[in-house]
Design a protein that fits this description.
Elements (H helix, E strand, L loop, with lengths): L1 H7 L3 E3 L2 H11 L1 H5 L1 E3 L6 H4 L3 H14 L6 E5 L8 H14 L4 E5 L7 H7 L11 E5 L4 H10 L2 E3 L10 H8 L4 E3 L7 E2 L3 H13 L1 H19 L1 H18 L1 H10 L2
Helix pairs in contact: 5-8, 6-10, 11-12, 12-13
């Protein structure tokens, strides 16, 4: 089914050049030729400055920063594929040096007992279990945005150069330092526990500098991952398809679209 759909598609959209090349290697030159790269965006660009989001963020922040501590945060699925072991092992090292550091986990995993799985499956030191703050999945986008304004440093483990997750892009939109894949928009690298630890400590100990630096990253991220570029690239692709595929245009006119 999937292979047939790929072969019949007039165009395929992928989020990175790496994905585009992989499509060509797997499915051949013809599929590669109709594969287009349009980078991800996020609706958080629109809601982060809403008064209710800012108010909610202040309330959460006051509760989580009572000890004048740093709050790291991760957003996504709690699973092996997301390199949660790297996150936990690196977090252990951070807490050994700064014991009041918190880790906000936005998301959940297959295991209903997330906290227990962090220790047994992913290597969290049991003495730091109280430093973990799990929220589960947050469906309300304004509440979700408030948590991004609450955290100090996003940690999103990864290894692929410049392949930023939606969560990383959302943190850039919130002007937060991102410790993730190697890349020009990262403030640190989280490809293994040691690099994660070193990156986080460096940012924590020079946080005023990184707060200012994050504005430069915000501007670059808005240009690369912002909604205007996202919409324009989609419109450009659709215009090309309508020009190259007059049959599609005739069908649209027939249905009154």
């Amino acid at each position: 089914g999937q292979i047939e759909m790929i072969k019949k598609a007039d165009a395929i959209i992928n989020i990175s050049e790496g994905h585009q090349k992989a499509m060509g290697r797997i499915f051949g030159r013809e599929v590669a030729k109709k594969t287009n790269v349009i980078k991800n965006t996020t609706p958080l660009w629109f809601v982060l400055d809403y008064p209710e989001v800012l108010g909610k963020a202040r309330m959460i922040r006051d509760d989580l920063h009572k000890e004048n501590n740093f709050v790291l945060f991760y957003s996504g699925r709690i699973s092996k594929e997301k390199m949660i072991e790297t996150l936990m092992l690196g977090f252990n090292k951070v807490c050994e040096q700064y014991p009041s550091t918190k880790l906000l986990l936005i998301g959940a995993g297959k295991d209903s007992d997330t906290m227990n799985s962090l220790i047994k499956a992913y290597g969290l030191n049991e003495k730091f279990i109280g430093n973990i703050i799990p929220t589960g999945w947050i469906k309300d986008i304004k509440e979700y945005a408030a948590y991004y304004l609450t955290g100090d440093i996003l940690i999103q483990p990864g290894r692929t150069l410049n392949l930023y997750s939606i969560s990383a892009i959302e943190a850039m939109a919130a002007m937060k330092p991102v410790v993730s894949v190697p890349g020009e928009l990262s403030c640190g690298i989280a490809d293994n526990p040691e690099n994660l630890y070193r990156s986080v400590i460096r940012i924590m100990e020079s946080y005023n500098f990184y707060e200012r630096y994050c504005y430069e990253i915000y501007v670059k991220a808005l240009d690369a991952y912002g909604p205007i570029r996202f919409l324009n690239e989609h419109l450009k692709l659709y215009a090309y398809l309508l020009k190259e595929k007059p049959k599609i245009l005739r069908l649209l006119r027939r249905t009154g679209k």
